[in-house]
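Cast an eye over this sequence plus tokens and walk me through the fold:

***
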Amino acid sequence: MKPYRTIAAALMLAVTGNIAHAQSAAGSAAGKDYPTFYVQASGGYFFNVSPGEFPNVGPYGPYETFSNVDPLTGAQTSVISNKILTGSYGQGFRTGVSVGMNLNKYVGLELGFHFYQSNKNLMTHQVEYEDGAPAGTPPLLSVESKGYVEAVDVAPAIVISPGHYQGFNPYVRFGLVIPVYGRLKIHTDGNAVGETSLGGVTYVTETAFQRQESVKPSFTLGFQGALGVSHPLCKHLDLLIEAEYRNVPVESKSKEVTAYQESTQVVNPANGQVVQTITKGLSDLATAERYTHYQTVLDQNSNTPTDNPATNLHPTYKDENSPSDDLKSYINIGGLGVNVGIRLRL
């Protein structure tokens, strides 16, 4: 009877092994319910979480200042009010597309491409009144600058989830932010009142100007981290919502005046008649006024103004035919935001 028992035992082992193998294969097939690849589009709004002091706009600091000045010397005699201007270039709208690849059910790689535009920020507001002038007299100088950031970045990241691809699937994402394009764009409006002498007669000058500047940043790396959840809308389409934090510090590299318009009316104070109008455009600016290189340190060899640029609309530089030098500034285009998007599972 032993041979029969041996044959029966062998058959049972074979059947049991085949069943176990089939169950294992079926389990593996059932377990691979995650997409190998996916493409997603999202957009959201980021909030200011770390406000800081804005950089200078030329000779004007990040302040809203109302003051009285001596019209003969241009020296400040008293300050009516002074307020520091703070905020962040990380507050604004961001949109983007991403491609992802899941290495297994729990870990994946993602590469995002994003466009960002911040809200406009008041960077400087300077108003100077003639000391002792009657109330209601127009200011001698009024300058207001507003700036915003436009940026494009590439964001590689690792995505980790519990693998609940058939229902609510929470996940965390963390990685780098690599800006590939970015500009701080500044628009300035200004008005100035002065005097000039023509033929021995003193006339009043009324100048209005507009200036557009574009600040180019140095290369930088930032950090991204997100906590989100996705849920299937249908077989290949998911809805996702996430909270994301970004920290992207940026330092200035160079600046260019990209547009400039100036119009000066020479007015006879006796009758208010305009006797002459003088206009200037971008091509009339000296190289030193139009282009700026930012430096960590300024010294006696730096191409800086030889007069006071705060009281001279077109200051004189040591070398008018070379770009001027100025101190570097630093901003952050990161923030805390909420994104909503859709994901196509391939």
Remarks:
- The radius of gyration is 32 Å.
- Residues 1-31 have pLDDT under 50 and may be disordered.
- The helical segments are 2-31, 287-290.
